[in-house]
Design goal:
Blueprint: H1 5-18, E1 22-38, E2 43-57, E3 63-69, E4 74-80, H2 82-85, E5 94-95
Parallel strand pairs: 1-5
Antiparallel strand pairs: 1-2, 2-3, 3-4
Catalytic activity: a 5'-end (N(7)-methyl 5'-triphosphoguanosine)-ribonucleoside in mRNA + H2O = N(7)-methyl-GDP + a 5'-end phospho-ribonucleoside in mRNA + 2 H(+)
Pfam families: DCP1
Subcellular location: Cytoplasm
């Protein structure tokens, strides 16, 4: 998704409210759904939906993502170990699954 410089600055200010170490936004998707995957039971539990922002950070871990749900005022903030960066493939403005091992202990 393409943003103007002014829009990027506004988005970065919003994202930095959740994590002050964010250096810049890498990519985004308008509508995503996040699921918690239980590998033992092989089940998926819906967590939330919203707008996805993939970012880089000044400190380790250097990558992460934030999903903002303005309707329910929820935020999911997850660091991404390098192994998970290959799982992200944002080709269009929709992104259906986020399966990252770090999410297995996610609390928000």
């Amino acid at each position: 998704m393409m943003f103007s410089e002014m829009e990027k600055n506004v988005i970065l200010r919003i994202l930095r409210r959740h994590n002050s170490n964010i250096s810049h936004m890498i990519d985004s998707a308008i509508q995503v759904e996040a699921y918690l995957y239980n590998s033992n039971a092989k089940t998926e539990e819906f967590i939330m939906e919203g707008t996805l922002f993939v970012y880089s950070s000044y400190v380790r871990p250097y990558y992460g993502f934030i999903i903002l749900d303005p309707l329910q005022l929820k935020t999911l903030l997850e660091p991404m170990p390098y192994c998970c960066t290959e799982l992200f493939d944002i080709r269009s403005q929709s992104f259906e699954y986020i399966r990252c091992p770090s999410m297995s202990n996610s609390k928000f």
